[in-house]
Design a protein that fits this description.
By secondary structure, the protein is mostly helical. Helix content is about 75%, strand content about 0%. Helix 1 crosses helix 3. The relative contact order is 0.05.
Length: about 240
């Protein structure tokens, strides 16, 4: 049996190689574009939700994790579609990492770290000039990278650690006192409602007693005393 040998022309293979390369580039850009759009929508949703509700929303409504959601959001904020780097994308796909740029190891955030992150975030949000805000943004991103987090994730963690960071000691004390006062008012209102219910029940029992004969009242009183003293069952057995 004769074997068939197919000899392919290098020029033809070159065309195939270039075509495949172009498909990789185009699909890579498309993937990035979809990621950007997903990130923009996630940012919009996060802005509509109360603080701390975003993770639960992602878990209930998306087919990926909150970590992936934050990656999409970061991609949207740093949209690099016009600077698509195929080499970088391939290195990530193949798991090739540069020795000089190892991944940072996530570490726990101390209160001092949280305070520093929130100060930078405040400058990003309310800096006097655009230049000041840009500098603060870069510092915050670099600081977050040291903890293996995005700037947004670092700020959220810092806010969890120091929820009263921007409040003065006096504000914290006043809010605590107001909360305690509200709790005391609610407890007092609940006790007053219980007392009114007891008074109403007493008045109803008095009305019932006025319509009963002396013998019926005596039987009711005796039955109540026996029940209180745990003698009801013994009396019932004796009556049989």
């Amino acid at each position: 049996m004769n074997a068939v040998v197919i000899v392919e022309d290098p020029a033809y293979l070159a065309r195939e190689i270039n075509y495949n390369h172009q498909q990789v580039v185009e699909h890579g850009k498309s993937m990035l574009a979809y990621a950007v759009e997903a990130g923009k929508h996630l940012i919009a949703v996060k802005g509509m939700l109360q603080h701390g509700k975003f993770g639960k929303w992602v878990k209930e409504n998306c087919v990926f994790s909150e970590r992936m959601a934050r990656r999409y959001m970061q991609v949207a904020k740093t949209d690099t579609r016009d600077r698509f780097d195929l080499d970088t994308s391939l290195r990530k796909f193949l798991g090739i990492e540069d020795a000089k740029t190892p991944h940072p190891t996530p570490t726990d955030l101390s209160q001092d770290d949280a305070s520093h992150a929130l100060k930078l975030h405040a400058l990003v949000e309310r800096g006097a000039t655009e230049g000041e805000r840009d500098v603060a943004r870069r510092k915050l991103e670099a600081f977050a990278k040291g903890f293996g987090r995005t700037a947004e994730a670092l700020v959220e963690k810092a806010q969890d650690i120091l929820p009263d960071w921007q409040k003065t000691d006096k504000q914290v004390r006043v809010e605590k006192a107001e909360a305690e006062a509200q709790a005391a008012k609610a407890e007092a209102a609940a006790l007053r409602a219980q007392l009114e219910a007891i008074k109403g029940r007493i008045n109803q029992l008095r009305t019932d007693c006025m319509g009963m004969t002396r013998e019926a009242l005596e039987e009711a009183y005796i039955g109540l005393v026996l029940e209180r003293e745990g003698l009801t069952k013994i009396n019932e057995k004796a009556a049989r």
